[in-house]
Specification:
heterodimer; A: MetI-like fold; globular; B: 2 domains; 34% helix
Chain lengths: 256, 262
């Protein structure tokens, strides 16, 4: 009973919020232009399901493309940074500096370089999401137990051996943990870029709807974004749990 | 008997931001082939530095170290190592943890893929001798601390090293498990006949296991006394309660108290 309730609770809470929202809108007679009620939003979702789906797919793949770039680049850079203390020290301030730049300021530059379209969105998603991956991979490598390194070095292992046998496997929990964060960031980046300059995507649709004063559609876009965000987070949370089961042993019952 | 480890007048300084620390000064130590040597001393006397020197992980400022007739210039592959922390890889099953050195050290490395079945059999046999038969397919975190340390010993021995370096391997275990593992190590040593250098601060452990106990002074460390333990072998745990055993422990203890004051 209790476990059932626990399993249902995310749904109950979500529905509860929508019900509360609907009630507030009706009781206080909130203007649709200020805050549309959920019923109106779902009506808009039904009415504009085709454009919503089309643009949703665009946003999804832009995010995933940027994210894929970030994963590839992040792992490589993370390994380079984690490889030696000198590189770590040298590159870290540069990366912090880069990460501190609000990416919203970079989007106009990307639009000037690549024109309006999906390319700036993909690149923004990439730029905003690679940092946590680099940091996590580098941290995983840098925190390797020195005794273990000694055991292997005493056997004549080269740096590459140690990386392949120990460093990279033990970095997996750090990497997969960072993917969850990176995918949500990539999503934020892609949508941000779409709202500034694009001709498709949920962000673009939202801006379009807003300038036409179609508030229910704007909120429909927001809900679409939330759903996609949750879905992608869930996928990578599952991937993490699947690949790094050994690192979460405390939450599993030991087989012994 | 020929010398297997010969440490001659070794001096070692650690260079740090706050100036150098002289860890070892004119340390000499001789270990025969097949001997079980123990090094004891007050904390911070450079016992662990000795381990790193012998395995070639660091090189001394002065003096030289010769292992089986060869001067140590870099990492020596004929050495197995185990530490206080078992340091098993949590993503590998026990058997694959034991096999790890074979994936690195030549000539096994080259043959590893082809003869994996053969190597697995060796690892299983080794696990059996330390009382871990049937635990090969478990993950390290499913094992108790003492069992993990047994696995660590197996990993140190799988490539049949001629020299086993142990750096306080039983320090983190409870008293019962520790004594149990003394016997495991004793039996392994008697069966396989490798040379052992055991670094420890447990005088009973040193006396029970070793042929010779070397006492180190406080920093800068050097050997101030070598005590030959002439208790008959094979030794049983009961020997720890005999007067001649406790006499040796007391003697070592007095010496360490003396060097700590100095």
């Amino acid at each position: 009973m209790n476990t059932n309730l626990e399993r249902l609770s995310p749904w109950l809470f979500t529905i509860g919020i929508f019900v509360l929202w609907e009630l507030v809108c009706r009781i206080f007679k909130v203007d649709t232009f200020v805050l549309p009620a959920p019923s109106q939003i779902f009506q808009a979702i039904a009415q504009y399901s085709l454009p919503l789906a089309k643009n949703g797919v665009v946003t999804l793949w832009t995010t995933l493309a940027g994210f894929a770039l970030a994963v590839a680049f992040g792992i490589v850079l993370g390994i380079i940074v984690g490889w030696s203390r000198t590189i770590y020290r040298g590159l870290y301030p540069v990366m912090i500096g880069f990460n501190s730049i609000p990416k919203v300021a970079v989007v106009p530059i990307l639009i000037i370089w690549f024109g309006i379209g999906v390319v700036p969105a993909v690149l923004t998603a990439f730029l905003i999401s690679f940092f946590p991956i680099v940091v996590n991979v580098a941290t995983g490598l840098a925190t390797m137990e020195p005794e273990l390194e000694d055991v292997l070095r005493a056997l004549g292992a080269k740096k590459l051996d140690i990386m392949l046998k120990v460093g990279i496997p033990r970095t997996q929990p750090y990497l997969f943990g960072s993917l969850k964060i990176a995918i949500t960031l990539a999503f934020v980046g892609a949508v941000m870029s779409e709202t500034i300059g694009a001709n498709s995507g949920l962000g673009h649709l939202m801006v379009l709807a807003g300038s036409n004063f179609q508030m229910p559609l704007v909120f429909a876009c927001l809900i679409g974004l939330a759903v996609e965000g949750i879905a992608m987070y869930a996928v990578f949370a599952y991937v993490e749990a699947y690949f790094t089961r050994w690192a979460f042993r405390s939450s599993m019952s030991a087989a012994a | 008997m020929t010398a297997s480890v010969d440490i001659g007048n070794v001096t070692l300084t650690y260079r740090g931001a706050a100036g150098g620390v002289l860890a070892l000064k004119d340390t000499s130590l001789n270990v025969r082939r097949g001997e079980f040597a123990a090094v004891v001393g007050p904390s911070g006397c450079g016992k662990s530095s000795l381990t790193k020197l012998v395995t070639g992980l660091i090189s001394p400022d002065n003096g030289e170290i010769v292992i089986f007739g060869d001067k140590v210039r870099g990492p020596v592959k004929i050495v197995g190592m185990a530490f206080q922390n078992p340091n098993l890889l949590p993503w590998r099953k026990v058997i694959n943890n034991v096999l790890l050195p074979l994936e690195i050290v030549e000539p096994h490395r080259r043959k590893f893929r082809h003869e994996k079945a053969q190597y697995r059999k060796q690892a299983d046999a080794l696990l059996k001798t330390v009382g871990l038969e049937g635990f090969g397919e478990r993950f390290p975190w499913e094992l108790s601390g003492g069992m993990q340390q047994r696995v660590s010993l197996c990993r140190a021995l799988i490539h049949q090293p001629a020299l086993l370096m142990l750096d306080e391997p039983f320090a983190a275990l409870d008293a019962f498990t520790r004594e149990e593992l003394w016997c495991v190590l004793r039996d392994l040593w008697q069966k396989l006949g490798f040379t052992v250098i055991l670094v420890t601060h447990d005088l009973r452990e040193a006396t029970f296991l070793a042929d010779n106990v070397h006492v180190m002074s406080a920093r800068p460390g050097r050997i101030v006394m070598t005590k030959t333990i002439d208790l008959p072998r094979p030794r049983d745990l009961d020997i720890c309660f005999e007067p001649r055993f406790t006499d040796i422990v007391h003697e070592l203890r007095a010496k360490i108290a003396e060097v700590r004051k100095a």
